[in-house]
Amino acid sequence: MKRNRIDSTGTKFNLDERDMPASWYNILADLPFELEPPLNPQTLEPVTPDELAPLFPATVIEQESSKKQFIDIPGEVLDIYRLWRPTPLIRARRLEKALGTPARIYFKYEGASPVGSHKPNTAVAQAFYNKQEGTSRLSTETGAGQWGSALAMACAFFGLDCTVYMVKASYHQKPYRRSLMQVFGADVISSPSSSTGSGRAILADDPESPGSLGIAISEAVEDVASSPGTKYSLGSVLNHVLMHQTVIGLEAQRQMELAGDTPTTVIACAGGGSNFGGLAFPFLKPVLKHRKHVPQPGALNSLSGITTPATSMPNDMAPKIIAVEPEACPSLTKGIYAYDYGDCSGLVPALKMHTLGHNFVPPGIHAGGLRYHGMSPIISALFNEGFIAARAVKQRAVFEAAELFARTEGIIPAPESAHAIRVAIDLAAECTETGQEEAILFGLSGHGYFDMSAYEAYRNGVLQDSVHPQSEIDKALAGLPKK
Amino acid sequence: MKRNRIDSTGTKFNLDERDMPASWYNILADLPFELEPPLNPQTLEPVTPDELAPLFPATVIEQESSKKQFIDIPGEVLDIYRLWRPTPLIRARRLEKALGTPARIYFKYEGASPVGSHKPNTAVAQAFYNKQEGTSRLSTETGAGQWGSALAMACAFFGLDCTVYMVKASYHQKPYRRSLMQVFGADVISSPSSSTGSGRAILADDPESPGSLGIAISEAVEDVASSPGTKYSLGSVLNHVLMHQTVIGLEAQRQMELAGDTPTTVIACAGGGSNFGGLAFPFLKPVLKHRKHVPQPGALNSLSGITTPATSMPNDMAPKIIAVEPEACPSLTKGIYAYDYGDCSGLVPALKMHTLGHNFVPPGIHAGGLRYHGMSPIISALFNEGFIAARAVKQRAVFEAAELFARTEGIIPAPESAHAIRVAIDLAAECTETGQEEAILFGLSGHGYFDMSAYEAYRNGVLQDSVHPQSEIDKALAGLPKK
After folding, report:
1. Residues of chain B contacting A11 with CB distance shorter than 8 Å
2. Is the minimum CB–CB distance between B407 and chain A shorter than 8 Å?
3. A453 contact B CB<8A
4. What is the pTM of this model?
5. Per-residue model confidence as pLDDT tens digits over B438-478
6. Is 3.40.50.1100 the CATH number for B81-115+241-477?
């Protein structure tokens, strides 16, 4: 740690657009273990590229399993990234002061993108590759709407039609997210809908069904099968999606250099894992390279118990890396590492991942982006091998942290992002006790302008700390595919 | 024009935080005419600093009439500006391409601030001066909520209590803006309220009154009179407010240099005038200095009719400067230049300004920030003397421009800001016809995340092009104070 180089005055570390990364970091090249392959949901045999071809363009399928360490970002994608990238890296000096902590706290702010989250980093890339290969329309699903609005914008940029199956509950609760997609020209359909067989089957059974992400995925995939020129696009979980997000971490590394500092801890929230992977993977690169032995994995019950993934390395090469998830949907800390389906109908390939079971229905917490039963296969494997740590936090503690952050740094964080803030604050508060000088970097994946009703609920004291009983998790896990 | 220096690749021109302006530009130092003084609303005699002391801190009162050309920004204010400033200046290359225009279009984006508009530039300064002089609480009014949320944030930063009288119609129509203020700890009161005499009088007369900005101002001012330690804060119109906003134009000048370009036209929307003044004043500095003769003032009916304010100057020193207002509230293009009150009850000083009459009630257009009957005295005088041009635009044309902008540049503009976009697009389209190579700079004062219902109304075809009949303007103008 070259402490004497730390920028003693800087608050915002801006990169020039010319210093924006020109390639994505592909962690598959550096993993010291093999990932287990996705399986055909019917046969449970490894899926072939040919089987994926109806869903994704060839370049994306290739990227999904490529072992090339860096993959060039096409110029057309860079041109669009430049509208908001490089995003700011900010030292949270006012938060530090409020906590009286000796820790230095930095955050990388992806809410600066036009739709307010990190999602466009992959949406733009996927829309580009589809356009290049002749796709005329993309079909996808969205829960809270962050992903749907990112893809709608990307499609507007490339002149692609876009259909978004939006979970019915959100369609009605979040009309402004829906309007946002419509401003970009997308066709937004409340799911379950009468447009697809899966939708009609659900509606026949329960005309009042509020929908679920699992149902919406089934509808989006079925739409592809029946519409020539249409492909499917996913906003998290898969390898290529996480790779497209690594611009976040690559920029943050350069910006930490501008700050003259090196993070000792990197923290990000994880739902499907694209925000976490995007920030953390570039920081994991030296860890993977120097890895000599495997420490024990495991969930963290207290911060002082954080696993240091590679104790044999020099300190400045081994930041602690922590994925934060809600206690209401704890796929890393309470799920198991097994093959499971990505949707509840078993239409999409089964992935080896940390999962709570594809039938698990998380409580209606306000961090909609973290309500997914599974976790990216790469992140699941890294966790399983002990390279990263995980921590589950409660909803009210998350909003308490969000409010302190807003009142000190001004930005209203998305409830998802506030999970990372909670752990950053806890760690900084520990440093206040111990006097330890940590440099904490967390990912602020998005703003919370569309989540004010959640803040209202918190302020009015009606927000619940929903935790699913282990028995329900066990029940859902019992439904895993048997190979 | 040094055209050969134009950055042929850049899209986003970022300044380092060290290049942020350290002082505000005070245009009062350079005006080639004297402004007429504010008058006591009762006596209609010039107001004394002593009469303003109950409302504002001494430094603010001094700034209101200072002739010092540059006024240092306090370090405590700079520390907070750094959380989001310098804001980006972006070349709208994708919009240019969509229009097929030879014009170069740049925009300065203030929506990057935590509350999503330019308003914190003065809110933070005012909160600081109040804190410094021992104020413990600030009282203000807000219409759509942009100003209220900026002041609420600034008060949170300096540990001041904050009470915001929010126009009742907006209080119920924009609950999320209200929540935003509450997250920052502000007390938000629906106006008319039973907390003040003016509020009670209105409610006695009409218990269902939807409120108005004029009523809310009266309540906020009355609150100050009855509460020790409380002062009043205004978000536009006054000289010191516009001066605090000049960081926008000062940054934009440096960023245009980075782009190697010089704007030939500068465009901004104008309600009370703080956004327009903030961007335009620094660009007016050389114009005022070299001014030799006064061209005729007047509203513009067509873009080709734009007044060039100082034809005797070299072209690169005299950008055309255009204020854009809604046809529904056309204070510059249809109002008269006369003394008028700032509120509808005549409680605050009368100002010499372009006004539609303090009893004028504009139609309920979605650009709430542009629904004010008057205009900043400085801007009114500059317009009256022919230094700047003005143009009024219709609501639907504004949303049409906003949607094109969103689909090309990604950002959803605030309806207010989209007024500037409309004129920028019209001018760029003219260049497509004529082949003229303009460099257009417009101010994008905020994002529209809290205005999605307006976009929804536009998309559904229910948005009206409200224009007030001249007879109603004449009636309101008949109520002006007679000196």
Report:
1. 17, 79, 82-83
2. yes
3. yes
4. 0.93
5. 999 999 999 999 999 999 999 999 988 877 778 888 888 88
6. yes
